[in-house]
Design a protein that fits this description.
Blueprint (H helix, E strand, L loop, with lengths): L18 H16 L21
Length: 55
């Protein structure tokens, strides 16, 4: 049995010159936003410094 929150790291980008890619991105975001457990904690401004290699 699964326990704990849904966690996913999704990096999304917008390709202005390609309508098919833009449509796909919009569809993906709609799915994420409609999925309970994911929609509640979408982060608009992620701190990417957590991925820096420790010295």
């Amino acid at each position: 049995m699964r326990t704990g929150p849904n966690i996913a790291f999704v990096v999304a980008f917008i390709e202005c010159s390609n309508q098919t890619v833009r449509d796909h991105e919009n569809e993906r975001m709609q799915i994420i936003q409609a999925t309970l457990g994911f929609a509640e904690r979408i982060v608009a401004d992620f701190d990417y410094s957590v991925f820096r290699k420790a010295a």
